[in-house]
C-alpha cells in the first residue's frame, strides 16, 4: 500500500498514489489492515505518515493541555492528538476543542460541526501545516485554526474559512507573539483570552 509524506502530492504528479475515501479508511482500520503502529492519517484521500515528535513539540503539547483544561467551560472538551472526521480527510490535530464530553464520541469522531478550534504544533511540519492542513481545515469550514509556530515563537491564527471551493483557504491570518493575548470565541460563549506565552514551549 503506497503512502506519502508531507508535503502532500498535490502540486505535482499523483501517479502511483492510491486515494481512499473516509469510509474506505475506516474499513481498513476495522479489518486490522491499518493500526496505531502504522502512524498514518488520511489527508485528502492519501495515507500520510505522521511526523515524529521532538522534545519542543511534546513540551508544547503538555503545556497547551494544562492551559486548555483550565480555561474551557463544561460545554467544550479538549481532544489531544485524536482523529476528527472531515469529508475527504481524517487528520489527528495536536489539539481539537469540540462540543460535548468524551461520551459524545464513543461511536464516532468529531466532525467540523462539532469543532470550535483545531491547533497544530509546528516545527519541521510548518509548510505542510500551513498549506495542506490549512487547505483541509478551510475546506471543511473549521471556524478557527491555530499553528503554534515553535521555530519563530509565535502563534498563527487563521479564521474565516472559505468552505468547499476550488481553492480553499482561510481569509484572515494574524500572528501573535509572546506578550500578546488571543481572544478565542467558541460558539456563542464569551471570548476566552489565551496568553501566547502560556501555549508556546
Description:
This protein is α+β, with helices and mostly antiparallel strands and 201 residues long. The protein has 3 helices and 10 strands, in the order αββαβββαβββββ. The protein has helices spanning 22-30, 55-71, 126-140, and strands spanning 40-43, 46-49, 76-80, 95-99, 115-122, 144-149, 154-161, 170-176, 181-184, 192-195. A 6-stranded mixed β-sheet has the order 3-4-5-6-7-8. Strands 1-2 form a two-stranded antiparallel ribbon. Strand 1 and strand 2 (46-49) form a beta hairpin. The protein is globular and about 45 Å long. The model is unreliable at 1-6 and 9-13 (pLDDT under 50).
Provide a brief overview of the structure.
This protein has 201 residues and is of the alpha+beta class. 20% of the residues lie in helices and 27% in strands.
Question: What's the helix and strand layout?
Answer:
Elements: H1 22-30, E1 40-43, E2 46-49, H2 55-71, E3 76-80, E4 95-99, E5 115-122, H3 126-140, E6 144-149, E7 154-161, E8 170-176, E9 181-184, E10 192-195
Parallel strand pairs: 5-6
Antiparallel strand pairs: 1-2, 3-4, 4-5, 6-7, 7-8, 9-10
